Amino acid sequence: MAMKPRFTRQGRTAGTATGGRAAPAPHPVDERLPPLRMAMTGLQHVAAMYAGVVAPPLIVGAAAGLSPADLTFLTGACLFTAGLATFLQTLGIGPVGSRLPFVNGVTFAGVAPMLAVAHSVQDGRDALPLIFGAVIVAGLLGFLAAPFFSRMVRFFPPVVTGTVITLIGVSLMPVAFDWMQGPDAAAPDYGSLANLGLAAATLVIVLLLRRFTKGFVKQIAVLLGMVAGTLVAVPFGKADLGPVRHADVLGFPAPFHFGAPQFGGAAIVSMCVVMVVSMTESTADMLALGEIVGRPADERTIAAGLRADTLGSALSPVFNGFMCSAFAQNIGLVAMTRIRSRFVVAVGGGFLVLLGLCPAAASLIAVVPRPVLGGAGVVLFGSVAASGVQTLVRAGLDRDNNVLIVAVSLAVGLIPIAAPDFYHAFPAQVKIVLDSGISTGCVAATALNLLFHHTGRGRAAWEETAEPMEPAVRIAASAGPDVGAPGARAS
């Protein structure tokens, strides 16, 4: 009697009609979907992270005083380099790349330090070569440190990562508030009721879309809110269509378009701190994604993934991009859709490259009025802060030492926001580091964690009471209620 083939939960063939064993089906992470489905799901990943990847170049470009044309170029360059970094992470080259469905793009963690660099020079354009040089050095050092860092995860528990993620969101909120008032502080309509009303309308649209839609539409609520806000702004003359009219259909981000990289000590230190933050987040994200897709990330996978992050960051400035890291919202999308193929995300990376090679497409974001970006930024930046708070909830704040770590670290990190002139007496080069609340808060949290949990009796007490980090729980919470049950896997 012929035996029918049996299939395991992961889709592997257990038997054949002749009683033999066929080659096992690929793991869902290595599955290749039909072309149309691959393209649509890849576009969904792009839509989920598009607003996040274009926000940093908009923030830094505006601080650097770039023209609309240069701002469009910078945005396109960041899209292009995000695609390259995504290729490195998903497809991999030798020991580089986790080969998990990771989307990589410009990290928010680097925005505040880059703004500090921009504010430290007389001509804003001179800041970009300094930023690019610092990112290159930080990326190369991170690449060398990746295998060692993968073994140091225990020094970055949720009490540290949660504090840093919270500071990232809170530090960026003033940027959203500035956007809401208008593009130019010297303009007569800066902070006018019209600008604030446009920002409020965008925020309301995003909230309504999140509340009353689901699935794909809900995932791109921020992007749709920006589109709707721009359409509302057009009749009132608040949207400038000039960048689109003058943008080329095709273009290439010429290497070092803004000048050869420069290497300033303070900027390098600041970006190295950001690299530590980025590597910490990426490590936690890899642990989470490994659980979600059913391929747990071991030390070797984490090291390979960190190499992809850091190498992508080091190469990004060559094409005028910034530091790259994994996008947590796309991990939530993997958990929600239960499509675990890394090739789907690689296709998304291909779309990012194409957008970067089409200035006309990249220029569309330059049309969005600044108040509209401000309204969307409240959700975008606030969500980052909220995910940090959710991480802190699981950090064991019932223990006094953890409360002290969070309290002091947040206080140190909030100084540049609450008292912008606090470090006015310090040398300008030192202020580049101190004026970044993310950098100072991360250093404070790490140092206090070492003091309270890894020295003397504190180490023994911590080892007895500390609970292992549950990555799937962490990412499920940070991605929001759409992700579903912690650690859920596709059947």
UniProtKB/TrEMBL annotation:
<feature type="transmembrane region" description="Helical">
    <location>
        <begin position="343"/>
        <end position="366"/>
    </location>
</feature>
<feature type="compositionally biased region" description="Low complexity">
    <location>
        <begin position="8"/>
        <end position="23"/>
    </location>
</feature>
<feature type="transmembrane region" description="Helical">
    <location>
        <begin position="127"/>
        <end position="148"/>
    </location>
</feature>
<feature type="transmembrane region" description="Helical">
    <location>
        <begin position="46"/>
        <end position="65"/>
    </location>
</feature>
<feature type="transmembrane region" description="Helical">
    <location>
        <begin position="256"/>
        <end position="277"/>
    </location>
</feature>
<keyword id="KW-0472">Membrane</keyword>
<keyword id="KW-1133">Transmembrane helix</keyword>
<protein>
    <submittedName>
        <fullName>Nucleobase:cation symporter-2 family protein</fullName>
    </submittedName>
</protein>
<keyword id="KW-0813">Transport</keyword>
<dbReference type="InterPro" id="IPR017588">
    <property type="entry name" value="UacT-like"/>
</dbReference>
<feature type="transmembrane region" description="Helical">
    <location>
        <begin position="216"/>
        <end position="236"/>
    </location>
</feature>
<feature type="transmembrane region" description="Helical">
    <location>
        <begin position="100"/>
        <end position="121"/>
    </location>
</feature>
<feature type="transmembrane region" description="Helical">
    <location>
        <begin position="189"/>
        <end position="209"/>
    </location>
</feature>
<feature type="region of interest" description="Disordered">
    <location>
        <begin position="1"/>
        <end position="31"/>
    </location>
</feature>
<feature type="transmembrane region" description="Helical">
    <location>
        <begin position="155"/>
        <end position="177"/>
    </location>
</feature>
<keyword id="KW-0812">Transmembrane</keyword>
<feature type="transmembrane region" description="Helical">
    <location>
        <begin position="71"/>
        <end position="88"/>
    </location>
</feature>
<dbReference type="InterPro" id="IPR006043">
    <property type="entry name" value="NCS2"/>
</dbReference>
<dbReference type="Pfam" id="PF00860">
    <property type="entry name" value="Xan_ur_permease"/>
</dbReference>
<dbReference type="InterPro" id="IPR006042">
    <property type="entry name" value="Xan_ur_permease"/>
</dbReference>
<feature type="transmembrane region" description="Helical">
    <location>
        <begin position="432"/>
        <end position="452"/>
    </location>
</feature>
<keyword id="KW-1003">Cell membrane</keyword>
<comment type="similarity">
    <text>Belongs to the nucleobase:cation symporter-2 (NCS2) (TC 2.A.40) family.</text>
</comment>
<feature type="transmembrane region" description="Helical">
    <location>
        <begin position="372"/>
        <end position="392"/>
    </location>
</feature>
<feature type="transmembrane region" description="Helical">
    <location>
        <begin position="404"/>
        <end position="426"/>
    </location>
</feature>
